[in-house]
Protein backbone atom coordinates (compact mmCIF):
# COMPACT_ATOMS: atom_id res chain seq x y z
CA UNK A 1 0.00 0.00 0.00
CA UNK A 2 3.02 2.26 0.27
CA UNK A 3 2.94 2.83 -3.46
CA UNK A 4 -0.03 5.20 -3.29
CA UNK A 5 1.80 7.29 -0.71
CA UNK A 6 4.70 7.74 -3.11
CA UNK A 7 2.49 8.44 -6.13
CA UNK A 8 0.55 11.01 -4.12
CA UNK A 9 3.80 12.50 -2.85
CA UNK A 10 5.14 13.02 -6.35
CA UNK A 11 1.81 14.37 -7.57
CA UNK A 12 2.17 17.01 -4.86
CA UNK A 13 5.76 17.54 -5.91
CA UNK A 14 4.64 18.20 -9.47
CA UNK A 15 2.39 20.98 -8.25
CA UNK A 16 5.40 23.03 -7.17
CA UNK A 17 8.25 21.79 -9.37
CA UNK A 18 7.97 21.68 -13.11
CA UNK A 19 10.68 19.99 -15.19
CA UNK A 20 12.58 22.42 -17.37
CA UNK A 21 14.76 21.74 -20.38
CA UNK A 22 18.00 20.00 -19.49
CA UNK A 23 21.09 22.16 -19.38
CA UNK A 24 23.03 19.52 -21.26
CA UNK A 25 22.54 18.86 -24.93
CA UNK A 26 21.85 15.35 -26.23
CA UNK A 27 25.46 14.86 -27.30
CA UNK A 28 26.70 15.73 -23.82
CA UNK A 29 28.02 19.20 -24.70
CA UNK A 30 26.60 22.41 -23.35
CA UNK A 31 24.96 24.98 -25.60
CA UNK A 32 26.63 28.38 -25.76
CA UNK A 33 24.65 31.27 -27.20
CA UNK A 34 26.62 33.72 -29.34
CA UNK A 35 26.43 37.35 -28.26
CA UNK A 36 24.91 39.80 -30.74
CA UNK A 37 27.49 41.18 -33.14
CA UNK A 38 30.11 38.59 -32.22
CA UNK A 39 31.14 36.18 -34.95
CA UNK A 40 31.18 32.50 -34.31
CA UNK A 41 34.45 30.77 -33.41
CA UNK A 42 36.73 29.76 -36.30
CA UNK A 43 36.29 26.21 -37.48
CA UNK A 44 39.93 25.27 -36.75
CA UNK A 45 39.65 25.82 -32.99
CA UNK A 46 39.48 22.79 -30.78
CA UNK A 47 35.92 21.65 -30.13
CA UNK A 48 34.45 21.89 -26.66
CA UNK A 49 35.56 18.81 -24.70
CA UNK A 50 32.79 16.25 -24.25
CA UNK A 51 32.35 15.18 -20.63
CA UNK A 52 33.23 11.55 -19.93
CA UNK A 53 30.33 9.16 -20.30
CA UNK A 54 31.27 6.89 -17.41
CA UNK A 55 29.68 7.37 -14.01
CA UNK A 56 31.61 9.17 -11.27
CA UNK A 57 31.23 10.48 -7.73
CA UNK A 58 31.27 14.02 -9.10
CA UNK A 59 28.17 13.22 -11.13
CA UNK A 60 26.53 11.69 -8.09
CA UNK A 61 27.12 14.85 -6.06
CA UNK A 62 25.86 17.07 -8.88
CA UNK A 63 22.73 14.95 -9.27
CA UNK A 64 21.95 14.91 -5.55
CA UNK A 65 22.29 18.68 -5.39
CA UNK A 66 19.96 19.01 -8.38
CA UNK A 67 17.15 17.14 -6.58
CA UNK A 68 17.75 18.33 -3.02
CA UNK A 69 14.29 19.90 -2.72
CA UNK A 70 12.57 16.87 -4.19
CA UNK A 71 14.35 14.61 -1.71
CA UNK A 72 13.33 16.87 1.17
CA UNK A 73 9.68 16.68 0.15
CA UNK A 74 9.84 12.93 -0.33
CA UNK A 75 11.47 12.43 3.05
CA UNK A 76 8.90 14.58 4.84
CA UNK A 77 6.00 12.80 3.12
CA UNK A 78 7.37 9.35 4.01
CA UNK A 79 7.83 10.30 7.67
CA UNK A 80 4.27 11.63 7.87
CA UNK A 81 2.77 8.51 6.28
CA UNK A 82 5.03 6.24 8.33
CA UNK A 83 3.89 7.77 11.59
CA UNK A 84 0.24 7.76 10.58
CA UNK A 85 -0.18 4.45 8.72
CA UNK A 86 2.89 2.28 9.27
CA UNK A 87 3.13 2.25 13.05
CA UNK A 88 6.53 3.95 13.10
CA UNK A 89 5.87 5.60 16.44
CA UNK A 90 5.69 2.26 18.27
CA UNK A 91 9.32 1.22 18.46
CA UNK A 92 10.69 -2.11 19.62
CA UNK A 93 13.84 -4.14 19.18
CA UNK A 94 14.96 -4.78 15.61
CA UNK A 95 13.14 -7.80 14.17
CA UNK A 96 13.27 -9.61 10.84
CA UNK A 97 10.71 -11.79 9.11
CA UNK A 98 10.77 -14.33 6.29
CA UNK A 99 7.72 -13.32 4.25
CA UNK A 100 8.11 -15.48 1.15
CA UNK A 101 7.07 -14.39 -2.30
CA UNK A 102 3.85 -15.41 -4.08
CA UNK A 103 2.79 -18.68 -2.46
CA UNK A 104 -0.59 -19.41 -0.88
CA UNK A 105 0.88 -19.21 2.63
CA UNK A 106 2.17 -15.66 2.31
CA UNK A 107 0.42 -12.69 3.93
CA UNK A 108 -0.47 -10.87 0.72
CA UNK A 109 0.14 -13.28 -2.14
CA UNK A 110 3.06 -11.24 -3.44
CA UNK A 111 1.12 -8.00 -3.82
CA UNK A 112 3.31 -6.37 -1.18
CA UNK A 113 6.44 -7.41 -3.08
CA UNK A 114 5.16 -5.94 -6.34
CA UNK A 115 4.18 -2.84 -4.37
CA UNK A 116 7.75 -2.44 -3.12
CA UNK A 117 9.16 -2.85 -6.64
CA UNK A 118 6.65 -0.42 -8.11
CA UNK A 119 7.22 2.20 -5.40
CA UNK A 120 10.97 2.10 -5.96
CA UNK A 121 10.45 2.34 -9.70
CA UNK A 122 8.16 5.39 -9.40
CA UNK A 123 10.62 7.23 -7.16
CA UNK A 124 13.56 6.41 -9.46
CA UNK A 125 11.66 7.27 -12.63
CA UNK A 126 10.60 10.73 -11.47
CA UNK A 127 14.00 11.50 -9.95
CA UNK A 128 15.52 10.60 -13.32
CA UNK A 129 13.35 13.26 -14.96
CA UNK A 130 14.25 15.83 -12.34
CA UNK A 131 17.99 15.15 -12.59
CA UNK A 132 17.87 15.37 -16.37
CA UNK A 133 16.03 18.68 -16.07
CA UNK A 134 18.24 20.36 -13.46
CA UNK A 135 21.70 18.79 -13.28
CA UNK A 136 24.63 20.46 -15.01
CA UNK A 137 25.72 17.05 -16.31
CA UNK A 138 22.68 14.74 -16.50
CA UNK A 139 24.62 11.79 -17.89
CA UNK A 140 24.00 8.79 -15.67
CA UNK A 141 20.76 10.20 -14.26
CA UNK A 142 19.02 6.78 -14.26
CA UNK A 143 21.86 5.33 -12.16
CA UNK A 144 21.73 8.06 -9.54
CA UNK A 145 17.94 7.96 -9.39
CA UNK A 146 17.91 4.18 -8.98
CA UNK A 147 20.54 4.28 -6.22
CA UNK A 148 18.67 7.02 -4.34
CA UNK A 149 15.30 5.29 -4.69
CA UNK A 150 16.78 1.98 -3.53
CA UNK A 151 18.36 3.76 -0.57
CA UNK A 152 15.11 5.48 0.40
CA UNK A 153 13.13 2.26 0.28
CA UNK A 154 15.89 0.42 2.13
CA UNK A 155 15.74 3.02 4.89
CA UNK A 156 11.96 2.61 5.06
CA UNK A 157 12.40 -1.14 5.42
CA UNK A 158 15.03 -0.68 8.13
CA UNK A 159 12.70 1.54 10.15
CA UNK A 160 10.02 -1.14 9.71
CA UNK A 161 12.38 -3.51 11.48
CA UNK A 162 11.92 -1.52 14.68
CA UNK A 163 8.13 -1.81 14.60
CA UNK A 164 6.46 -4.99 15.73
CA UNK A 165 3.83 -4.62 13.05
CA UNK A 166 5.94 -4.92 9.87
CA UNK A 167 9.53 -5.99 10.67
CA UNK A 168 12.49 -6.10 8.29
CA UNK A 169 12.10 -8.33 5.23
CA UNK A 170 14.97 -9.40 2.97
CA UNK A 171 12.41 -10.17 0.28
CA UNK A 172 11.31 -6.53 0.34
CA UNK A 173 14.90 -5.40 -0.19
CA UNK A 174 15.20 -7.68 -3.23
CA UNK A 175 11.89 -6.36 -4.55
CA UNK A 176 13.16 -2.80 -4.15
CA UNK A 177 16.19 -3.71 -6.23
CA UNK A 178 14.00 -5.10 -9.01
CA UNK A 179 12.09 -1.82 -9.19
CA UNK A 180 15.30 0.22 -9.27
CA UNK A 181 16.75 -1.93 -12.06
CA UNK A 182 13.55 -1.65 -14.09
CA UNK A 183 13.80 2.13 -13.90
CA UNK A 184 17.39 2.01 -15.19
CA UNK A 185 16.28 -0.32 -17.98
CA UNK A 186 13.33 1.89 -19.01
CA UNK A 187 15.29 5.14 -18.86
CA UNK A 188 18.51 3.94 -20.50
CA UNK A 189 17.32 2.10 -23.61
CA UNK A 190 16.36 4.61 -26.32
CA UNK A 191 12.64 4.62 -27.03
CA UNK A 192 11.72 2.36 -24.13
CA UNK A 193 9.92 5.09 -22.16
CA UNK A 194 7.71 5.75 -25.17
CA UNK A 195 6.87 2.06 -25.52
CA UNK A 196 6.45 0.69 -21.99
CA UNK A 197 4.62 1.82 -18.84
CA UNK A 198 4.26 0.08 -15.48
CA UNK A 199 1.04 1.07 -13.73
CA UNK A 200 -1.18 0.38 -10.78
CA UNK A 201 -4.97 0.33 -10.89
CA UNK A 202 -7.08 0.84 -7.79
CA UNK A 203 -9.96 -1.41 -8.74
CA UNK A 204 -13.45 0.01 -8.14
CA UNK A 205 -15.99 -1.84 -6.01
CA UNK A 206 -17.72 -3.15 -9.14
CA UNK A 207 -14.55 -5.11 -9.97
CA UNK A 208 -14.54 -6.92 -6.61
CA UNK A 209 -16.72 -9.41 -4.79
CA UNK A 210 -19.43 -8.18 -2.41
CA UNK A 211 -18.08 -6.91 0.89
CA UNK A 212 -14.64 -5.92 -0.40
CA UNK A 213 -14.98 -2.16 -0.33
CA UNK A 214 -11.62 -1.25 1.24
CA UNK A 215 -10.45 0.31 4.47
CA UNK A 216 -11.11 3.82 5.70
CA UNK A 217 -7.47 4.86 5.54
CA UNK A 218 -5.75 7.02 2.95
CA UNK A 219 -4.00 4.16 1.20
CA UNK A 220 -5.99 1.50 -0.69
CA UNK A 221 -5.72 -2.09 0.57
CA UNK A 222 -4.01 -4.81 -1.42
CA UNK A 223 -7.30 -6.46 -2.35
CA UNK A 224 -8.18 -3.37 -4.40
CA UNK A 225 -4.93 -3.21 -6.39
CA UNK A 226 -3.86 -4.56 -9.77
CA UNK A 227 -0.47 -4.08 -11.44
CA UNK A 228 -0.20 -3.71 -15.21
CA UNK A 229 2.54 -3.55 -17.83
CA UNK A 230 1.36 -1.57 -20.86
CA UNK A 231 3.00 -1.77 -24.30
CA UNK A 232 2.00 1.42 -26.13
CA UNK A 233 1.36 1.59 -29.86
CA UNK A 234 2.31 5.26 -29.88
CA UNK A 235 5.91 4.30 -29.13
CA UNK A 236 6.38 2.53 -32.46
CA UNK A 237 7.16 4.55 -35.58
CA UNK A 238 5.09 2.32 -37.84
CA UNK A 239 1.98 2.89 -35.71
CA UNK A 240 2.30 6.61 -34.91
CA UNK A 241 0.22 7.69 -37.90
CA UNK A 242 -2.46 5.01 -37.48
CA UNK A 243 -5.38 4.63 -35.06
CA UNK A 244 -3.32 1.98 -33.26
CA UNK A 245 -1.34 4.77 -31.59
CA UNK A 246 -4.27 5.00 -29.17
CA UNK A 247 -4.10 1.28 -28.30
CA UNK A 248 -2.06 -0.61 -25.71
CA UNK A 249 -1.39 -4.26 -24.97
CA UNK A 250 -1.65 -5.07 -21.27
CA UNK A 251 -0.34 -7.82 -19.01
CA UNK A 252 -1.46 -7.67 -15.38
CA UNK A 253 -1.42 -9.46 -12.05
CA UNK A 254 -3.38 -9.41 -8.82
CA UNK A 255 -3.96 -11.61 -5.78
CA UNK A 256 -7.24 -11.97 -3.93
CA UNK A 257 -8.40 -13.77 -0.80
CA UNK A 258 -5.29 -13.09 1.29
CA UNK A 259 -6.52 -10.17 3.39
CA UNK A 260 -8.32 -10.43 6.73
CA UNK A 261 -11.62 -9.07 5.44
CA UNK A 262 -11.58 -11.57 2.56
CA UNK A 263 -10.84 -14.42 4.95
CA UNK A 264 -13.74 -13.40 7.17
CA UNK A 265 -16.07 -13.49 4.16
CA UNK A 266 -14.78 -16.94 3.19
CA UNK A 267 -13.47 -15.99 -0.24
CA UNK A 268 -10.93 -18.35 -1.83
CA UNK A 269 -7.28 -17.51 -2.36
CA UNK A 270 -6.69 -16.63 -6.01
CA UNK A 271 -3.78 -15.31 -8.03
CA UNK A 272 -4.58 -14.13 -11.53
CA UNK A 273 -2.83 -13.03 -14.70
CA UNK A 274 -4.55 -10.69 -17.11
CA UNK A 275 -4.00 -10.01 -20.79
CA UNK A 276 -5.95 -7.42 -22.69
CA UNK A 277 -6.07 -4.15 -24.57
CA UNK A 278 -6.36 -0.65 -23.22
CA UNK A 279 -6.79 2.94 -24.28
CA UNK A 280 -3.71 5.16 -24.15
CA UNK A 281 -5.15 8.18 -22.36
CA UNK A 282 -1.91 10.12 -22.63
CA UNK A 283 -2.07 9.82 -26.40
CA UNK A 284 -5.78 10.64 -26.49
CA UNK A 285 -5.40 13.73 -24.32
CA UNK A 286 -1.94 15.01 -25.27
CA UNK A 287 -0.92 13.28 -28.48
CA UNK A 288 -0.16 15.17 -31.70
CA UNK A 289 -2.70 13.37 -33.86
CA UNK A 290 -5.41 15.00 -36.01
CA UNK A 291 -8.10 14.80 -33.33
CA UNK A 292 -8.62 17.86 -31.09
CA UNK A 293 -7.20 17.44 -27.60
CA UNK A 294 -5.01 19.20 -25.03
CA UNK A 295 -1.69 18.80 -26.85
CA UNK A 296 -0.90 22.51 -26.64
CA UNK A 297 -1.03 22.26 -22.85
CA UNK A 298 1.18 19.18 -22.55
CA UNK A 299 4.18 21.20 -21.33
CA UNK A 300 2.24 23.35 -18.89
CA UNK A 301 2.25 22.48 -15.20
CA UNK A 302 -1.22 20.81 -15.21
CA UNK A 303 -0.39 18.99 -18.45
CA UNK A 304 2.90 17.67 -17.12
CA UNK A 305 1.28 16.52 -13.86
CA UNK A 306 -1.52 14.75 -15.77
CA UNK A 307 0.88 13.01 -18.15
CA UNK A 308 3.11 11.74 -15.35
CA UNK A 309 0.12 10.48 -13.37
CA UNK A 310 -1.17 8.54 -16.37
CA UNK A 311 2.23 6.87 -16.74
CA UNK A 312 1.81 5.28 -13.31
CA UNK A 313 -1.94 4.94 -12.81
CA UNK A 314 -4.31 2.88 -14.95
CA UNK A 315 -7.76 4.48 -14.99
CA UNK A 316 -10.53 1.89 -14.43
CA UNK A 317 -12.89 1.14 -17.33
CA UNK A 318 -10.29 2.11 -19.95
CA UNK A 319 -9.26 -1.48 -20.74
CA UNK A 320 -10.68 -4.97 -21.24
CA UNK A 321 -9.01 -8.13 -19.98
CA UNK A 322 -9.08 -11.87 -20.23
CA UNK A 323 -8.40 -13.32 -16.78
CA UNK A 324 -6.51 -16.55 -16.09
CA UNK A 325 -6.76 -17.66 -12.47
CA UNK A 326 -3.69 -19.83 -12.33
CA UNK A 327 -4.09 -20.71 -8.65
CA UNK A 328 -7.32 -21.07 -6.69
CA UNK A 329 -7.37 -22.42 -3.13
CA UNK A 330 -10.72 -22.96 -1.44
CA UNK A 331 -11.08 -22.44 2.29
CA UNK A 332 -12.36 -25.36 4.35
CA UNK A 333 -12.65 -24.20 7.93
CA UNK A 334 -9.18 -22.92 8.78
CA UNK A 335 -7.38 -25.13 6.23
CA UNK A 336 -6.80 -24.94 2.50
CA UNK A 337 -8.19 -27.26 -0.14
CA UNK A 338 -7.29 -27.22 -3.86
Automatic annotation (TrEMBL):
Residues 1-24 form the signal peptide. Keywords: Lipoprotein, Signal. It comes from the Bacteria. InterPro entries: DUF2279_periplasmic_lipo. The keyword Lipoprotein applies. This is Predicted lipoprotein. It comes from Microvirga guangxiensis.
